[in-house]
């Protein structure tokens, strides 16, 4: 039989007591934290899987925030386009009434004033924003798409022409605008536009009459002489037009790219566009008109008291309305996709949370039972050690 020394007995007892104490401490830590895994050494494989689950949950949380933000952006876009559609239908209804032959010139002018107010509201809706970003501004969302300026006044200098080089056709008043902006002009007051022809011999002055000698195009901003009208003066006498002051309102479409796309990542590697650009909402490629141009033609027809031209303008408005409806349809389809993806990501999050919980969370009933057993084992090892390691003479020195 192998000889057993006191040192061997002491080492064995202490090793078993320390092992039982460590096991009891581990169970105590699990009970106090509520987690089965507190460090990699508890279970390396389960800890690795648990870390992966947590990373996926964090990623899904970011996807959820992206979906919520994108859905809110598109919901605001839908509200703006719905209100625009309502306004366009109101304008169209008034235009249909104005196209009737029973409408008088005064009634059409009153209708034009109403439509002018609706147009201003339409422009305001086109500049709708969300969190400080203009919804229809594309990637340049820091500035409005349209800007409205009231009561801008400009003076057109007179033109001087000689009889022997008389020019006919369209006379354009020269004025330079910045950035190739799109302008809409308010109707010119016929009483404020005069063409005066003065001869140097005898100082004879003749005034042309709008509608008889010349015609003003209020939407294009041009003055055209009417065929058959003429003025007789001495050879080489100058024909001068007097200075004209014109007050008008205009809408500026900002001269920058409004077609940029804004995306949100809603799944791993899946990015979906959330914005609708101004060109998609307001531009009718069929008629090469945008919303402002169509409304300007309508206002010009109303001020000129032309039922036929009002009917033509209604066709342009219908084209713009179709473009708006198509943009609404695309926006609605993206909203549906976000909703479906959000539901699917939510179900995935629930399942991953369940798997992660199975790895990490503690089964308290099982842990309490194991803790109680480990506590008994630890106490028994202490009592056994006290019996085995008896006092020696060293204790009494």
The stretches of 5 or more residues where confidence is low (pLDDT under 50) are 151-191, 194-206, 227-248
End-to-end separation: 33 Å
Number of strands: 15
Helix proportion range: 40-55%
- Which word captures the global form? rod-shaped
**How large is the count of helical segments?**
7
**What is the N-to-C succession of helices and strands?**
HHHEEEEEEEEEEEEEHEEHHH
Q: How many strands, what sense, and barrel or not for the largest sheet?
A: 3 strands, antiparallel
**Using only CA atoms, what is the Rg?**
42 Å
Mean pLDDT: 76
Brief sketch in words of this structure:
The chain has helices at 6-33, 44-98, 105-126, 278-282, 291-303, 307-360, 364-388, and strands at 129-130, 133-134, 146-156, 160-162, 170-172, 195-198, 205-208, 214-217, 222-225, 238-240, 244-253, 263-267, 270-273, 283-284, 289-290. By secondary structure, it is α+β, with helices and mostly antiparallel strands. α2 packs antiparallel against α3 and α3 (105-126) packs antiparallel against α5.
Overview of this protein structure:
There is one protein chain. The chain has 397 residues and is of the alpha+beta class. The chain has a domain at 146-253. It contains seven helices and 15 strands. The chain has helices spanning 6-33, 44-98, 105-126, 278-282, 291-303, 307-360, 364-388, and strands at residues 129-130, 133-134, 146-156, 160-162, 170-172, 195-198, 205-208, 214-217, 222-225, 238-240, 244-253, 263-267, 270-273, 283-284, 289-290. The strands form seven sheets. It has a three-stranded antiparallel β-sheet with strand order 5-9-8, with no helix packed on it. A two-stranded antiparallel sheet has the order 1-2. The radius of gyration is 42 Å and the shape is rod-shaped. The chain starts with 5 loop residues before the first helix and ends in a 9-residue tail after the last helix. Residues 151-191, 194-206 and 227-248 have low confidence and may be disordered.
